[in-house]
Amino acid sequence: MVEVKRLAKGLCAMLGVVVGIVVVLLVVALVRALTLEDLDYQEGAIDPGERDHLPESYLKGLPQLMARALAIPTVAWGPGEYDAEAMKKFHVFLRESFPHVFNSSVIEVEVVNEYSLLLSIKGLHDDLVPYMLTGHIDVVPVAKDKWTHDPWGGHILKDSATGESYIWGRGALDNKAGVMGIMMALEYLAKTDFQPERSFYVAFGHDEEVRGLEGAGHIAKVLESRGVQLDFILDEGMPVLKGVVNGVEEPVALIGVSEKGWVTVELEVEGPGGHSSIPPANSAVTRLAKAIVALEDNPQPSMFGQGPEADMLAYLAPKASWPFKMIYSNLWLFGPLVSRIMTAKRETNAVTRTTTSVTIVRAGVKDNVVPATATAVVNHRVHPAQSIRDVIQHDRKMIADPSVKINLLPRSMEAHPVSPYGPEVSPWRLLSAAVRHHYPNAITAPSVLVANTDTRHYLQLTPHVYRFLPAMITGKDVTMIHGHDEKISVTSLFACVGFYHHLILAADVQSPPLKTQPGHRGGEL
User: What's phi and psi for 456, nearest 5 deg?
Assistant: First the structure.
């Protein structure tokens, strides 16, 4: 009995210590969260001067111009397969719609590899490092019968519920909003005889949707051959999203500081074939099915905390409501819980880990013949904290069957390096200040872009590569991108134009870096 009492007393003491530690940790977390109440990690606005104004008279004609751009079906179906006539027609449209850009004495326009465009805008000071704004003119195909309105109709229609006007068409968000936003901003500046302090480039590829080898790939070679090095690159990315993060009511502007990699493997299994009336005990199809289930039941490990996704939540924490403020500001304590919650939802799961998707399964030629070979194609989107080698090693370990061959298919790509971000990084400050200028309530935060862009071809030109589209949509509207009924509101179109206009002006104001440092020689525009 004495021993039992002593054991109970020891357990109570241990429990008391554990409870005390938990209480201390929670108090520390609470204090930390409370200190964020008056903090604002968002960049202050940059005032580029009196030019930072787009008059109503200029803006009012832009929706019709955007509608005309969307009416041109610049579709890309596959590598080297795109509507060449539509591409040429789009070039003509740009020249006719933006005459001041194409006739400016400080803007050189080059057609690269027949269908892509490279614009070089000459600055007043050659010793300043240039930057580049990019986009793409190609779009993905449509299932026309699934659309409410003709995707090539160039319709501008008012939403009866909100009264907001929308411009309908394939490419409204991906990515003619970016292309037209840049060109509309540049046209107004050229019209007013603007010449920037520092030079910059504008690059529009024509086959981004099908890997970009013939478009951005060739533009990159042109720039490399001229010894160009850039301060930063801004390409397409996620738009400003509202209602997508738990506990955050304000719009969120997620700037992609990295992109996931891409690797596709083929699982191949061979086994005894023959007549289906006498099937083998462990056929090729059975072993392949077990391998697929093993990958499904044992996903790639969560990389939460090893990439930008943890910082994303930390940036959102000051504006989050309780208890999310406490959770997001104390990931040192709640990180495992947040990781588990994020992995439970497909959209956020894709941010935290390398994803696994079985896309093609092949086996058999006839209903009464046991196939001797079965294959499955598995596509992985690789998290920046992993390498392709890590991913394949995990696959092999989880399948745990040497009879299942894992063949690496061509055209794999490692995840992009994580570009510097934060208040001490000049290009980041410039972009986040431009977001604040047009979306004062939005929270700018770093993220990983789960899709891919043309930036893969430009990584050697600068360590500062960012991906963002300055248009606002709701979380439910994300499915429009590559989906049906793609459209952009007139308000968002104006915001895109204003964002690029402001960015170009502010890029001169915010102390652009010099091309050369003592003892070093920089490239020329």
Answer: -55, -30
Rg (CA), the chain: 27
- Decide: 222 and 456 in contact? Cβ < 8 Å: no
Q: Percentage helix, strand, coil, to 5, in the chain?
A: 40, 20, 40
Is-contact 234 431, C-beta < 8 A?
yes
Extract the tokens encoding 462: 């600068």
User: Cβ neighbours of residue 199 under 8 Å, at least 6 residues apart?
Assistant: 120, 121, 122, 123, 126, 128, 130, 525
DSSP for residue 366? S
Tell which phi-psi region holds residue 171, choosing left (phi > 0), alpha (psi between -120 and 50) or beta.
left
∠ CA 200-203-207, nearest 5°, is: 170
pLDDT (tens digit, 9 = 90+) per residue, 186-220? 999 999 999 999 999 999 999 999 999 999 999 99
Residue 459's Cα: distance from chain center in Å?
Answer: 15
- C-alpha separations of 57 from 54, 164, 490 in Å: 8, 19, 15
Q: Give the active site residue among 208, 235, 236, 395.
A: 208
Residue in this structure with the two tokens 């109503």, named with its chain if needed: 56
- Are 519 and 92 in contact by the 8 Å Cβ rule? The answer is no
231 classed as catalytic: no
DSSP 8-state class, residue 168: E
The residue annotated as part of the active site, out of 43, 138, 268, 486, is: 138
**Closest by CA position to 167, among listed 478, 489, 523:** 489
**Residue in 259, 233, 263 with CA at minimum distance from that of residue 415:** 259
Question: Which residue has 């429009």 as its token pair?
Answer: 480
Alpha-carbon distance 200 to 498, whole Å?
Answer: 18
Interval 430-450: pLDDT, tens: 999 999 999 999 999 999 999
**Of residues 414, 357, 416, 353, the one with CA closest to residue 388:** 414
Distance of CA 299 to the CA centre of its chain: 22
Contacts of 427 (CB under 8 A, 6+ apart): 131, 231, 232, 464, 466
- pTM assigned to the model: 0.92
Q: Taking Cα atoms as reference points, which of 387, 379, 419, 376 lies closest to residue 301?
A: 387
138 is catalytic: yes
**Residue positions counted in the chain:** 525
